[in-house]
Design the sequence.
């Protein structure tokens, strides 16, 4: 018995929304005595595999943390290399993403990126917008605190313009201004690379997300590791504040 669930009764549950902190590229490269950027390049290969798997098993949305608002403080050479890699990956993958129905979009403050990169991002977003497959959300120059601040500002500005009474603002009013307002909150959060922290990823959105941490470094993460995470997720009892008995009762009545 685990989490009050009979093990034989556990079925695979596909999360609607998976959010991943892709960590460990640098250490993976270091272990191979290669430059950190080599690890980032290999990380793109993992991204490709994970998108394919999510698309085929029916995950609605996959959000990947590609560059945090704090990552600008890395050595200039690494930051520049990452920017070049984003550009290259967008160029190389655009057509195959569109062909496979993947809808690509970016969240984060993209104004900090070069004009060229911003243009490319907009181009691939437009190219893939009508896809019917998994929605791939790349968090780049994203920070959870930034998101809460920018959504608060928008909520207040709109509220003032529409003469809204501050007491009428709700959690939903803020949610509607977040970078992920059109997405369900993540069901499953995965962090590779061994660290057990959120690192300023989707702070508001992760309130009731199931957390999964693995020591596997991102370039070594693969389909079977993702399957392992989904299997683990499938054993969790999501209570959202209720009791385990209430949840079971609801399930039997459904
Ligand atoms: C994650 O891998 C990728 C980015 C932050 C862009 P890291 O580069 O953080 O890898 P480690 O943590 O140094 O191994
Ligand atoms: C988080 O990884 C950001 C991304 C994966 C893009 P970091 O490697 O930057 O996180 P910290 O600094 O170890 O918390
Ligand atoms: Mg790291």
Sequence:
């Amino acid at each position: 018995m685990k989490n009050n669930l009979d093990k034989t009764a556990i079925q695979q549950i596909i999360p609607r929304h998976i959010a991943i902190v892709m960590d460990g590229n640098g250490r993976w490269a270091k272990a191979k005595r290669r430059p950190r950027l080599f690890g980032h390049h290999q990380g793109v290969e993992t991204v490709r595999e994970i998108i394919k798997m999510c698309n085929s098993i029916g995950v609605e949305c996959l959000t990947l943390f590609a560059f945090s608002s704090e990552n600008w403080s890395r050595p200039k050479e690494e930051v520049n290399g990452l920017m070049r890699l984003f550009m290259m990956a967008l160029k190389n993958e655009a057509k195959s993403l569109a062909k496979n129905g993947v809808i690509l979009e970016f969240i984060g403050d993209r104004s900090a990126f070069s004009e060229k990169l911003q243009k490319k991002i907009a181009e691939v977003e437009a190219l893939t917008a009508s896809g019917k497959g998994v929605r791939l959300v790349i968090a780049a120059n994203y920070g959870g605190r930034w998101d809460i601040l920018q959504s608060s500002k928008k909520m207040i500005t709109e509220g003032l313009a529409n003469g809204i009474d501050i007491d009428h603002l709700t959690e939903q009013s803020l949610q509607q201004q977040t970078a992920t307002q059109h997405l369900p909150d993540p069901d499953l959060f995965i962090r590779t690379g061994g660290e057990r922290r959120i690192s300023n990823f989707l702070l508001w959105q992760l309130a009731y997300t199931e957390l999964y941490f693995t020591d596997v470094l991102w370039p070594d993460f693969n389909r079977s590791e993702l399957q392992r995470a989904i299997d683990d997720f499938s054993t969790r009892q999501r209570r959202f504040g209720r009791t385990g008995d209430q949840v079971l009762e609801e399930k039997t009545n459904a």
